[in-house]
Design a protein that fits this description.
Layout lengths: L17 H4 L8 H14 L9 H14 L11 E4 L1 H13 L2 E9 L3 E10 L2 E11 L11 E3 L2 H8 L2 H8 L3 H6 L1 E5 L4 E2 L2 E2 L6 E3 L9 H5 L8 H11 L9 E3 L3 H7 L2 H11 L1 E7 L3 E10 L5 E7 L12 H10 L6 H4 L4 H11 L6 H7 L3 H12 L15 H33 L4 E5 L1 H4 L2 H11 L16 H20 L1
Parallel strand pairs: 2-6, 5-9, 6-10, 11-14
Antiparallel strand pairs: 1-13, 2-3, 3-4, 7-8, 11-12, 12-13
Helix pairs in contact: 2-17, 3-17, 4-20, 5-9, 10-20, 12-14, 14-16, 16-17, 17-19
Length: 488
């Protein structure tokens, strides 16, 4: 299904019209087109001049403890103590033992539940179940409608996974570590907020939300208590010390490649993890000196995807307003709206009866998203039946616009990666996950070339069929369970 782009919202007075930007497409040469398109995007404030590495460095330093008033912080990271977990994973790897671990990774619309074994630092996938849990009325980005907190778990955990747990022996269940990774900010097992993620008929926000519980409006302030209660209603009794919640998918992503993360930490002093696909987020691990001369590893879920430009682009503002989303970096480098921003730009740059306008009108936002990276990084020609109806100048214009979008992506990525790296006091290297990187290795290579070093690691996860963040949920559950065993 193709998504119409409404141009009526705020075009007047802030953009060039097609006839002003490109008065006669077919009579212009490539150089003239380049200059005309550049002027169009300049008028649209396409690149935020204030988004610099220095700005990002200041924001991250302030947010991770070098500021005073938390209310003034432009991002609000959730810190996690990583030292014990890294140590526990390395100790378990050296022991040669084998452990049974289950994970439930819940995203914005889909859940992946895995049963695995771990030995010698390697994960073996035994069983995997997937579930798409939104109904037709619930588009992604809107709250999941639930009766209560038990209904939330009932909606998002695959029934086949629950059946697989029921078929395990009591000994297996008692010895198994399990983690539930959910798409809410978590700190010490408590949900920080979920008002934009879940709508409950009983006690809105209800027992999934720690703040409401402190007001006396909820009865399950800890997310682990909530899921254990649900599992008991299904006849599954797990040990609380072996049942955990994930801090965040980016924190788990770094743990999912903990051997590589440990190597980079030893070498560089800081390691990041970036997810970029339909969403965008970053975590950073850095060494923090202790008073006794030792060091700890502190992890921060930075939520950089929610960082807002000082001067958002007029195109992004219009598309995000129609989608009822905010103007943030996420929508500029990936995400659900980028394809529609691309379509709006080309719609404004073409005449209604042109072949390129008809081509864009019939292009889905997902296909537009892929086209940006496919044709905007190098001189890859526009070949294929879908482009046969376009004139050579229309193809040239399409390529130029793709390059404008990729250039902004690279500028923003470099600003974010270099700024975060500088904030740690080290040359941090970022591990990666997500379709934007997986499908576009040339993008990664170009970012590294411009950075002058391998700022994005080319390392890949070792478990086939599992992403770093899903592997990280396994390692996180294992580490937390081993730490709990040592404390008892």
């Amino acid at each position: 299904m193709n998504e119409p782009v409404n141009l009526a919202s705020s075009r007047t007075g802030r953009m060039l019209t097609a006839i002003e930007a490109i008065p006669n497409l077919e009579s212009m040469d490539a150089d003239g087109l380049e200059k005309s398109v550049a002027l169009y995007f300049e008028k649209a404030r396409f690149v935020d001049k204030g988004l610099t590495p220095e700005k990002i460095e200041a924001v991250v330093r302030y947010a991770t403890g070098e500021g005073i008033d938390a209310e003034d912080r432009e991002i609000s990271p959730i810190p996690s103590d990583i030292t014990e977990r890294m140590d526990a994973l390395e100790a378990f790897e050296a022991s040669g033992e084998e452990a049974y671990v289950a994970t439930v990774n819940i995203g914005g619309s889909n859940t992946t539940a895995n049963l695995t074994t771990v030995k010698d630092g390697k994960i073996t996938l035994k069983n995997s179940q997937n579930l798409s849990f939104r109904n037709e009325k619930e588009r992604e980005g809107t709250p999941i409608q639930c009766i209560d907190h038990l209904d939330f778990w009932r909606r998002v955990i695959p029934s086949d996974f629950l059946q697989a747990l029921k078929e395990l022996t009591t000994d297996d269940l008692n010895n198994m570590a399990i983690e539930f990774a959910i798409p809410f900010p978590i700190k010490d097992g408590h949900v920080i907020h979920c008002s934009d993620k879940v709508a409950c008929n009983k006690n809105p926000l209800g027992p999934l939300n720690d703040r409401e519980a402190r007001k006396g409006e909820g009865t399950y302030p800890n997310i682990t208590q909530s899921v254990l209660e649900f599992l008991r209603t299904e006849g599954i009794n797990l040990i609380s010390d072996k049942t955990h919640t994930g801090d965040n998918d980016t924190i788990n992503g770094a743990l999912g490649m903990y051997q590589e993360a440990s190597r980079i930490l030893d070498e560089k002093g800081a390691v990041g993890f970036v997810i970029c696909g339909t969403g965008f987020n970053i975590a950073i691990f850095k060494k923090v000196a202790n008073a006794d001369g030792t060091y700890s590893i502190k992890g921060y879920n930075l939520e950089m995807g929610h960082f807002r430009p000082e001067e958002p682009c007029a195109l992004d503002v219009d598309v995000n307003a129609q989608a009822k989303t905010v103007d943030d970096i996420e929508s500029c480098v990936s995400g659900k709206n980028l394809g529609n921003v691309f379509k709006m730009a080309l719609t404004e740059l073409t005449n209604p009866n042109s072949g390129l306008r008809k081509f864009i009108d019939n292009l889905s936002k997902d296909d537009a998203n892929e086209m940006i990276f496919r044709f905007g990084i190098d001189e890859t020609p526009l070949e294929g039946q879908q482009f046969n109806a376009l004139t050579e100048n229309e193809k040239t214009l399409l390529k130029i616009v793709c390059k404008q979008f990729v250039e902004r992506v690279i500028i923003y990525f470099l600003a974010v990666f270099q700024g975060i790296s500088a904030s740690t006091g080290h040359d941090a290297v970022f591990l990666k996950e997500g379709s934007v990187f997986d499908k576009n290795p040339k993008l990664v290579a170009e970012i590294n070339r411009r950075a002058g070093r391998g700022i994005i690691s080319m390392a890949t996860p070792k478990t086939e069929g599992m992403t770093p963040s899903s592997s990280g949920a396994v390692f996180d559950a294992l580490a937390k369970s081993k730490i709990a065993e040592g404390a008892n």
